[in-house]
Amino acid sequence: MNIDIVKELDPLFNPKSVAHIGATNNRNKWGFSTITSLINTFQGPIYPVNIHEEYIQGLKVYRKVTDITEPVDLAVFTIPAERVAQAMEDCVAKAVKSAVIISAGFAETGPEGKKLQDEVLRIAQKGNIRFIGPNCMGYWSASSNLGAFMMPLLVRDGPLAFVSQGGNVGAAVVVAGYERGVGFHRYVSCGCAADIAIEDYIEYFGKDPEVKVILTYIEGLSDGIRFMEVVKQVTPKKPVIVLKPGKTEAAAKAIKSHSGAMAGSDEIYDAAFKRMGATRVENPEEMLDVAIGFLTQPLP
Question: Which of 34, 73, 202, 208 could lock 15 by a disulfide, CB 3.0 to 4.6 Å apart?
């Protein structure tokens, strides 16, 4: 796949406007905490989309994305899985450039969910919409001061970039970084990674001059060969720190039900990380310690 990754992902990390499909005034739904997270961070126009509300936190609400008269760069989804495909069709019609699907109920649930996920991917590709997720906890981009999080997170700008297949692990590292005074220029909870793969994010971070150290939490890879090629190209210029669970059978089983990823043989992963020059760590605390070490010491 010969694509210009910077050109492909820039609309996602530098949007000028955001539509939130599934924003709500109901405090018991993710659509409430997500719109709150957007309002607390993003300075550009935010367009809530919901068929039942007129105003959400002072913002005018639209019934569909296609009802918004201004251009929309990013769509954030927090609606039930079965409604995502139709809403993605609307995004294609509206010429939305990028999306983040926080909604769960896709490949991580089994064959039916995978079918639904493939359909959403097919529609998005028709409109050249690159998207994060589904089944993720959102993302942060310091260049546009945008936190599209399932729940508001404490995060500051800084020299780290992090892509995590596990939302809880990702959030814990980001918040621990905030408490220790270390910031993230980019943070992505990638979930099922139906469209943008982990290695795509690493390639993009590798080309971002603001990013000095790249962190990744991996549960399983769909294209191990490409992952190796990308990391091999990035590591001579920037350290790549990898946290990969799944050493035990129980952990491997838990991973499959969580992100729909196959854990794979731990020995193979271990040898591969060494070969590509990545630094493997055992837990989130060590990940942050090693990242701070790389930032404060001359690179080996």
Answer: 73
Q: Are 82 and 58 in contact (CB under 8 A)?
A: no
pLDDT digits (tens, 9 = 90+) for 106-129: 999 999 999 999 999 999 999 999
Domain 5-132: which topology? Rossmann fold (3.40.50)
CA distance 71 to 16: 9
Angle at 234 between CA 233 and CA 235, to 5 degrees: 100
The answer to whether residues 191 and 171 touch, using CB atoms and an 8 Å cutoff, is no
pTM for this structure? 0.92
Q: Residue 247: is its pLDDT beyond 80?
A: no
Q: Contact, 220 vs 192, CB < 8 A?
A: no
What would the two tokens of residue 279 be? 């630094």
- What's the CATH superfamily of 153-296? Succinyl-CoA synthetase domains (3.40.50.261)
Burial 273-300 (b: 16+ CB within 10 A, else e): beebebbbbeebeebbebbbebeeeeee
